[in-house]
Amino acid sequence: MKLLSNLFKKNKQETKQKSEVKSTTSQNKHNEKVAARKGEIGEYKIDIQLAQLPKEYRHLTDIMIKNEKAKSGYSQIDHIVITPYGIFVIETKNYQGTIYGGKERKTWSVNGKFKMMNPFIQNYGHIQAIKNQIDEKYHNQFISMVSLQNGARSKSTI
Fold it and tell me: What global pTM score does this model have?
């Protein structure tokens, strides 16, 4: 499992700067900064919980990994937890209100207004990107999880 940790640390350092997306208008830049900040807060809350796991568990946060199928060419993975029981890949969503969606729908909505990518499909892409970078003997070890933060309620048909 140490080999996996080193791979992700290396990719994070190499690609962190490439993940920034530039916006064409100042309003879009402001909205992106606010959304990114809210996302970081949700990820931080999970980080606090992950820090309490047993020492033999390893957790990695905010990992960038090459993903040829992603628009940017990279996947930004919120959390990876490596345990003797499996490799947990966690997608964190930090929204207030109700999230509407279904397992087959590509996009979900927040409070019926704002669209977001289906987090389960998003996490599936993250796991596939990781699988492309590691030894095949670990491919059956992945467990996908989605964490809703900030009082979000799901009205999804999963």
Answer: 0.72
- Give the burial class of 123: count Cβ atoms within 10 A of its Cβ; 0-12 exposed, 13-18 middle, 19 or more buried: buried
Counted residue by residue, the chain has a size of 158
Q: Which of 61, 62, 59 is closest to 81 using CA atoms? A: 59
Separation of alpha carbons 80 and 148, rounded Å? 16
Q: Is the distance from CB of 69 to CB of 122 less than 8 angstroms?
A: no
Enumerate residues 6+ apart whose C-beta is below 8 A from 94: 38, 39, 41, 42, 43, 45, 149, 150, 152
Contact in structure between 89 and 79 (CB atoms under 8 Å): yes
> Averaged over 94-111, what is the pLDDT?
88
60: number of Cβ within 10 Å: 19
DSSP 103: T
DSSP character at residue 16:
G
Residues 40-89 pLDDT 10s: 666 777 888 898 899 999 999 999 999 988 889 999 999 999 999 999 99
